[in-house]
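Box 3.1 A note on notation
Throughout this textbook, protein chains are presented in two layers. The first layer is the amino acid sequence; the second is a token string describing backbone geometry. Keep the layers aligned when reading.
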Amino acid sequence: MAIEDKSISYRIYLFAIVVVIFVIAIVVKLTNIQWVEGDYYRKLAKERSVKNFVIPANKGNIYSSDGSLLATSIPNYRIRFDALAPSDANFNSNINALADSLSVLLGKPSNQYRTSLTRARTLKNRYFLVARDLSYTNYIRIKNFPLFKLGAYKGGIIVEQETVREHPIGKIAERTIGYERVDHNGNTRIAGIEGAFSDYLNGKDGKILKQRIAKGQWKPLRDNNEIEPQDGYDIVSTIDVYIQDIAHHALLKQLEYYEADHGSVVVMECNTGEVKAIANLGREANGTYYEKLNYAIGESQEPGSTFKLIDLIALLDDKKADTSTVYDTNGGVVEYYRRKVRDSHKGGYGKISLARGFEVSSNTVMAQAIHNSYKDNPSQFIDRINSYGFNKPLGLPIEGEGIPIIPQVKGKSWSGLTLPWMAYGYGVSVTPMQMLTLYNAVANDGIMVKPIFVKEVKEWNKTIKKFNTEIINPKICSDEALAKVRAVLENTVKNGTGKKLYSKDFSMAGKTGTAQVNYGKGKGVESGMYYASSFAGYFPADQPKYSCIIIIHRPSKSKGIYGADVAGPVFKRIAQKIFTDSPTTNEVKNLKKKDVKQEASYDSYYTSMQKKQDVVPNVKGMTGMDAVALLGNMGLRVKIIGVGKVKNQSLLPGNKIDKNALITLELS
């Protein structure tokens, strides 16, 4: 018995010890939670019950220079269906009407919607997709359809909204207007104006503190936001929608006809450097074209003969030659270090002047002129090119600008062939936009300005930042040299390689270009060699308003490769359409000067109209609107039949007016 009592005592002691240890463990844990890990658990509890929610800022719009909307944010809606939410009675009584309504709005057969919705209910699908990419108007319509109008809990409708960026003018200038997107890896990808000026457009998101309540819902803790969202600013670009449309379709037409790979066109305002139009179109496998890349800004390549403008400016400004200096084309071939420079015209042009050599785009003339003039001091020629900024990117805000290549005298690539090759646009590399700045400078009285794409940043009617014209080079050459250069460029269109573009009714100036691309491996199809056709110039020639460059890559050889044939017509079409279709403003002078005869006529009319009219007037020949106003003021009720001018009236002129009488007017 004693042994048994002793055994029981041991068990009691053991249990007591276990309990004490358990209590100590609890106390230690509570102490640890309260004092050691207290901050962590308090923070965790707060995060699960109180949370900051982001209030997205509204993104700013992008406008054209004429006020047209180029990019804006709009709500986009998806409609889903919780097939288990409606009761059997509600579902069965509304399914046919809902299917019919969806059919009318979305275009698919009513039976298809009825079957899909019924199947979703059978499969207990609580997230069935009904429609996507709905506008706000269609969202409101679908929200009021049978069954859906009962709401989320009784009708099963689930609405998902997101904000999407839209370009109201479609695909035109898409690469230049640009975008800011997040790819599947979470990386932000930007392009064009939208990407370059995203800091202004995006604004700053706000924050609101909410507390978790029943059924997973969240409610604001305060009436005011923690941080108020700041909407993004609007961007006013330099793009002119009218000119952009002309340039886009002129380029597209030529690309399609010549079955070219890709092309670009830029139209720039001479005085300001504002880019009024820029189109970049690339060919797809099915033969269609769309804005694939911003070739005008990003594609640096050998320009070919359009580069000869630098030769002409340098030779005249440095007084190395004059427009009348004669060169022998030597049968169309000259040789340097056993490498031949050839003219496109077989047999050459005989002995011709520098000006004529430029006009007919003689490679032999320009190579001789540059080599002979600068071979002893090539730095003089290269320094001039560098002063035009051709040795470095323009520094445009839009990402992806191509890197130019201008051989430097002390560089590794310099050789005895460099100067003659540069003379006709080979061995150098520039973007179309860079080349345009030079032609624009000639048009702009020798002032080279940097291309700009944005005029100002605005908040409603308040200007936040204005972008003014930036000068690259205040004077590219002397006025004397400039006058000669402009005359030669105009003659190139009149009598040179651009003579097919000439019009006696409209003056243009410019230079054609035809460059071989990928010529290093030969001229066969397998080598990858092809031609790039270009034209650069300005218009009108006498008082330049716009400069323009066109480059078209890989035109079909069977249809033509030369700049005058392929790119030139685009230039002409743009120039003439801008000035023939654009509205003009005529100033009317001496508005305050009175016309005695007109004043007397008006006084007579005014005096007669002050007298009480008691007879029906003759309104035949008057417009319906004027007749109604006149007769109505005289107390008559007027009925109109037809549209246009009054042909007949039911009450004859001269009859006495009866108050509230009805007169019927027959219009034609």
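The mean pLDDT is 88. The chain is about 35% helix and 25% strand.
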